[in-house]
Amino acid sequence: MKNFVRGALAALVVGSVGAAAQAADLPSYKAPPPPPPPAFTWTGLYGGVNIGYAFGDNSRETGGLGYLTGIPVVGAAPVTLAPFGSTWSVGQNLHGIAGGAQLGYNYQFNPWLVLGAEADIQATDAVSHSRTAIGLADATGTHLQTMNSTKNVDWFGTVRGRVGFTLPSMPNLMVFGTGGFAYGQVVNNVGFGDVFPAQGLSAIGNGYYDNTKVGWTAGGGIEWSPSMFPSWSLKAEYLYVDLGSTTANSVPLNALPGVAAGIPVFAATHNSPTRFQVVRAGINWHFDPFAVVAPSSASGALPSVKGPPPAFVDSYQPFQVRLKVAGVIPLNGHGTVYDSGSGYPGLGSIGVGTGLTGYNGVIAGASTNTSSAIIPMLDVAYYLTKNWAIEAICCVAPHHIQGTGTISSDFARAWLFPPSIMAQYHFTNIGAFQPYVGVGVNFTTFWNTRVNNDTWSIPFAPGSPLAGAQGVLANFQYATVAPSWGPVGQIGFDYMLNDHWGVNVDFKYIGLHPMVHSTVVSFAPVAGAGLSAIYIPVKVSLPINPVVISAGLTYRFGGSLLSPLF
Question: For the domain bounded by 316-560, which CATH number is listed?
Answer without folding.
Answer: 2.40.160.20
